[in-house]
C-alpha cells in the first residue's frame, strides 16, 4: 500500500499521509500501512514528532465497505488508534473534510487534533445500527465529558469544527495552511508531557448516582425502537467504571453483537440502498444533464411553497406563479414564515434569510416562466386542471425546459399528452412538508427522455432529497401501496378496534405514525378525493374505507379542521367518542359483529397487503428493485428504518410465512374482493423458497 500511505520528513517531523481515494477508507491494507509507517517514524532517530493527515477532499473514513460485513482483521482500526496513543513521540491529527467513524477514532488516538474551519467530525455508527468499535465510546468521554459524549454518539450527527473545538473534541482550528499548522504544533509538543486521551480523567462529580439508568431510559425513549443508541450508554458506562483495556474490549464486543443483529443488517441494507436507487439502468454517467439555473413553481399552497423553499435553499432563483393575488400574497407569506421560524430557532441567520427571500419572484402571469429551466406544477390534484396548466406551460416555456408535475396519483402520460413536448414532461412527487421530507418520487412517463430523468435525479441531490424512480400507475410506488394499508386499518375499526388502538399497535411495532393519525395529518379530504379519482378501479365493497368517507361527509377534514379520526387541539390529538359511536353504528348497519383484536393481528393485517402490493409493483416494472420500494417507505411513509422496509421485512419474516398468513386471513375475513390473494410474484418466490433479495427483474 505504499502508493496509498506515504511518509516523508518535514524537518524533524514525520508526515504520514493516507491517499486512498475517494474517501480514504481504512481497509486492512491501509491501516496496516499506517501502523507500519507509524512504527518506522517512531524508530527513526531523525524524527521527533509525527503528523497524520490525508490527501484529497477528506480525512480518513471508517472501514472499507468491502469489509463491512466481516469480522475485523488485525490490525483493526482500534489497534491502530491504540498504537498511536501509546507512541512515545507526539502524534498530531490534521483533519479536513470529514473525520467520521473510524477516521475520527484514529484522531482520538492522537495526542492533539487540529482541523480546518470547514471540517466536521463525528461518530455516526448508530445510523448503521452499531456503536463505535475502535475506542470511540471509550475515548470521547475523556475529552468531552459523559453527557456530551452520549448525546453526540447516540445522535450520530456531524459536528462542525467550531462546535467540536468548544466541546473539546478537537484542540485547535488552523488559521492558515492545515499541514503547516499541524507541523508547527507537532514541533511545539516535542519534549512536553503527551496528552494521551485514555489517561485524561473523566469528571463524574456532577452525575447523580442513577445517571446511567436514567439516561438509558431517556435515550431509549428518544430513539424509540432502536437498539444501538441505548447500547451507547452501556459502552460509555463501561468507560467510566472499568479499566481502559476492559472498556475497549467490551465496546468491541457490543459493536460486533449489534452488527450480527437484525437492526444493523436492515440499516446497512438501507445505507447502501439509498445509494443504489440513484443508479438507473440504461442511464449512465455519460447521459448529458440539462442545465438547471432557474426554477418556476405553479401553485402556492402547502406543497408549492414547500417545493419553492427547497430550491431557494439550494441557491436557485424561483418564480412562484398563482392565478389569484390573495393566494400569491399568502404563498409568499408562508415562505417568509418558514424562514422566520428558522431564524428564531437559530438555524438560519437573518442575512441568509434575506438572501433566500431575495431569490423569490412572484407573478400572476404564466409568461413569467418563459426563461426558466425547470417548472414544477403543484396545483390541486385534478386531471383537467393539471392538463390546463400544462397546455399553458407548453405555450410559454422555452424549448428544452423541463415540465414537471407534483401529482401524487394521476396518470402522467395523460398530462404529457396535452403538450407538444412529452419527452420533456416528468413527475416530481414531493412529500409533505416538501421542504422537510427527504423522499422524492421521480415519475417516468412513456415518452420522458433519458436526459430529463438524469437531470431530475441530479436535481434531487442538489436539494438534498433521496430520489426514487417510479413508472406510471395510480399512486406510483408509495401511494399505491398505501391504499391497502389504509383499507385494512379502517376495516379493523369496523371489526372492533378504535383508531387509537390501531395506531398504537403500529407505532409500537415501529411506524412513525399510525394510519388514522397519518390520514388526519394529510387531510381526510385528500384521502377521500384520491379515492374519488380512482372509484372506477376500486372494489364494490361497502366497507371499503367507509369510515374515512363518512368523516368527509361530516366535514371532519382532519388536523387542519380540528377534527377527523381524532379531536385536535393545543395539547395534541385525543380520541373522540363521536367517532367511536359512528364506527359502531356503521359496523352494525353492515352486520359486522365487534370482537377483541390483538396487536399482532392489527400489524399483520396492515402490513401483509403492503408486501403483496409491493411484489405486484415489482412484477409490473413500476419499481426497478425491491430496495427502491423500501427506500420509498422508509424515507416517505415512516416505515421503521431498523426493519429495512416492507420488502426487506417480508424476507426477514419469510415469504412462505407471508403467503400462509394471507391464506389464514382469507379464511378469517373472507376474500370476495381478492384482498388476501397474494400477488403472483409473491407466490412464485415463496414456492421456490426464495425472497425478494433473489428477484432478478421484471
> Could you tell me the mean pLDDT?
96
CATH class of the largest domain: Alpha Beta
Structural class: alpha/beta
Indicate the overall shape.
globular
In the sheet with the most strands, the strands line up as: 12-11-10-13-14-15-16-17
CATH architecture of the largest domain: Alpha-Beta Complex
What percent of residues are in strands?
5-15%
| Strand segment count | 19
What share of the residues lie within helices? 40-55%
Number of helices: 28
Largest sheet: 8 strands, mixed
Terminal residue distance: 43 Å
Question: Which SSEs are present, and which pair or pack?
Answer:
Elements: E1 5-10, E2 13-18, H1 28-43, E3 49-54, H2 77-86, E4 91-95, E5 98-100, H3 102-109, E6 112-115, E7 120-122, H4 136-144, H5 146-155, E8 159-160, H6 161-167, E9 172-173, H7 178-189, H8 211-222, H9 228-241, H10 244-260, H11 262-276, E10 295-298, H12 302-313, E11 318-321, H13 325-344, H14 350-358, E12 360-363, E13 374-377, H15 383-396, E14 402-405, H16 412-416, E15 425-430, E16 439-443, H17 450-462, E17 466-470, H18 478-495, H19 499-509, H20 515-522, H21 524-532, H22 546-553, E18 566-569, E19 572-575, H23 577-590, H24 599-620, H25 626-636, H26 646-653, H27 655-669, H28 680-687
Helix pairs in contact: 1-2, 2-3, 4-5, 4-9, 5-9, 8-9, 9-10, 11-25, 12-13, 18-24, 19-24, 21-22, 22-23, 24-27, 27-28
Amino acid at each position: 500500500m505504499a502508493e496509498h500511505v506515504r511518509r516523508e520528513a518535514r524537518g524533524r517531523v514525520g508526515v504520514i499521509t493516507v491517499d486512498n481515494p475517494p474517501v480514504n477508507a481504512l481497509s486492512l491494507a491501509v491501516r496496516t500501512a499506517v501502523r507500519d509507517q507509524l512504527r518506522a517514524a517512531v524508530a527513526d532517530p531523525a524524527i521527533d514528532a509525527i503528523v497524520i493527515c490525508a490527501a484529497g477532499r477528506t480525512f480518513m473514513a471508517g472501514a472499507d465497505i468491502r469489509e463491512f460485513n466481516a469480522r475485523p482483521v488485525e490490525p483493526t482500526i482500534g489497534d491502530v488508534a491504540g498504537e498511536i496513543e501509546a507512541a512515545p513521540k507526539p502524534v498530531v491529527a490534521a483533519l479536513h473534510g470529514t473525520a467520521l467513524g473510524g477516521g475520527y477514532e484514529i484522531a482520538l488516538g492522537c495526542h492533539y487534533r487540529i482541523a480546518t474551519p470547514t471540517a466536521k467530525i463525528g461518530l455516526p455508527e448508530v445510523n448503521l445500527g452499531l456503536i463505535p468499535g475502535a475506542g470511540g465510546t471509550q475515548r470521547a468521554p475523556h475529552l468531552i465529558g459523559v453527557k456530551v459524549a452520549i448525546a453526540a454518539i447516540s445522535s450520530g450527527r456531524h459536528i462542525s469544527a467550531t462546535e467540536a473545538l468548544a466541546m473539546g473534541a478537537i484542540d485547535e482550528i488552523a488559521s492558515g495552511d492545515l499541514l503547516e499548522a499541524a507541523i508547527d504544533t507537532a514541533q511545539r509538543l516535542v519534549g512536553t508531557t503527551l496528552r494521551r486521551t485514555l489517561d485524561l480523567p473523566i469528571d463524574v462529580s456532577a452525575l447523580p448516582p442513577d445517571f446511567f439508568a436514567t439516561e438509558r431510559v431517556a435515550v431509549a425513549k428518544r430513539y424509540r425502537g432502536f437498539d444501538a443508541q441505548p447500547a451507547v450508554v452501556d459502552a460509555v458506562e463501561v468507560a467510566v467504571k472499568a479499566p481502559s483495556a476492559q472498556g475497549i474490549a467490551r465496546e468491541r464486543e457490543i459493536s460486533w453483537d449489534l452488527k450480527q443483529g437484525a437492526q444493523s443488517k436492515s440499516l446497512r441494507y438501507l445505507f447502501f440502498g439509498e445509494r443504489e436507487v440513484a443508479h438507473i439502468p440504461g442511464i449512465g454517467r455519460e447521459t448529458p444533464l440539462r442545465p438547471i439555473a432557474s426554477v418556476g413553481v405553479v401553485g402556492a399552497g402547502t406543497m408549492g411553497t414547500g417545493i419553492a423553499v427547497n430550491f431557494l435553499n439550494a441557491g436557485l432563483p424561483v418564480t412562484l406563479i398563482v392565478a389569484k393575488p390573495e393566494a400569491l400574497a399568502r404563498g409568499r407569506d408562508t415562505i417568509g414564515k418558514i424562514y422566520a421560524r428558522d431564524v428564531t430557532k437559530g438555524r438560519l441567520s437573518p442575512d441568509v434569510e434575506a438572501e433566500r427571500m431575495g431569490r423569490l419572484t412572484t407573478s400572476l402571469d404564466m409568461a413569467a416562466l418563459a426563461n426558466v429551466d425547470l417548472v414544477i406544477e403543484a396545483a390541486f390534484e385534478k386531471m383537467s386542471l393539471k392538463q390546463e396548466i400544462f397546455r399553458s406551460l407548453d405555450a410559454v416555456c422555452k424549448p428544452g425546459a423541463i415540465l414537471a408535475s407534483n401529482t401524487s396519483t394521476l396518470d402522467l402520460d395523460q398530462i404529457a399528452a396535452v403538450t407538444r413536448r412529452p419527452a420533456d414532461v416528468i413527475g416530481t412527487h414531493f412529500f409533505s412538508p416538501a421542504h422537510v421530507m427527504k423522499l422524492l418520487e421521480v415519475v417516468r412517463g412513456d415518452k420522458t427522455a433519458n436526459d430529463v430523468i438524469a437531470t431530475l435525479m441530479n436535481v434531487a441531490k442538489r436539494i438534498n432529497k433521496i430520489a426514487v424512480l417510479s413508472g406510471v400507475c395510480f399512486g406510483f410506488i408509495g401511494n399505491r401501496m398505501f391504499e391497502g394499508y389504509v383499507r385494512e386499518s379502517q376495516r379493523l375499526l369496523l371489526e372492533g378496534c378504535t383508531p387509537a388502538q390501531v395506531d398504537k399497535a403500529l407505532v409500537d411495532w415501529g411506524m412513525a405514525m399510525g394510519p388514522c393519525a397519518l390520514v388526519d395529518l394529510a387531510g381526510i379530504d385528500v384521502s377521500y378525493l384520491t379515492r374519488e379519482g380512482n372509484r372506477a378501479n376500486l372494489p364494490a365493497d361497502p366497507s371499503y374505507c367507509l369510515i374515512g368517507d363518512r368523516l368527509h361527509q361530516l366535514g371532519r377534514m382532519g388536523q387542519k379542521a380540528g377534527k377527523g379520526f381524532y379531536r385536535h387541539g393545543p395539547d395534541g390529538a385525543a380520541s373522540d367518542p363521536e367517532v367511536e359511536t359512528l364506527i359502531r353504528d356503521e359496523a352494525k348497519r353492515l352486520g359486522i359483529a365487534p370482537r377483541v383484536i390483538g396487536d399482532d393481528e392489527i400489524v399483520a393485517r396492515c402490513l401483509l397487503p403492503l408486501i403483496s402490493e409491493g411484489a405486484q409493483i415489482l412484477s409490473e416494472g413500476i419499481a426497478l428493485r425491491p430496495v427502491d420500494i423500501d427506500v420509498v417507505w422508509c424515507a416517505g411513509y415512516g416505515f421503521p428504518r431498523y426493519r429495512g422496509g416492507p420488502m426487506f421485512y417480508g424476507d426477514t419474516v419469510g415469504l412462505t410465512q407471508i403467503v400462509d398468513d394471507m391464506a389464514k386471513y382469507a379464511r378469517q375475513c373472507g376474500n370476495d374482493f381478492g384482498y388476501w390473494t397474494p400477488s403472483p410474484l409473491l407466490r412464485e418466490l415463496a414456492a421456490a423458497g426464495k425472497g425478494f433479495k433473489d428477484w432478478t427483474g421484471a
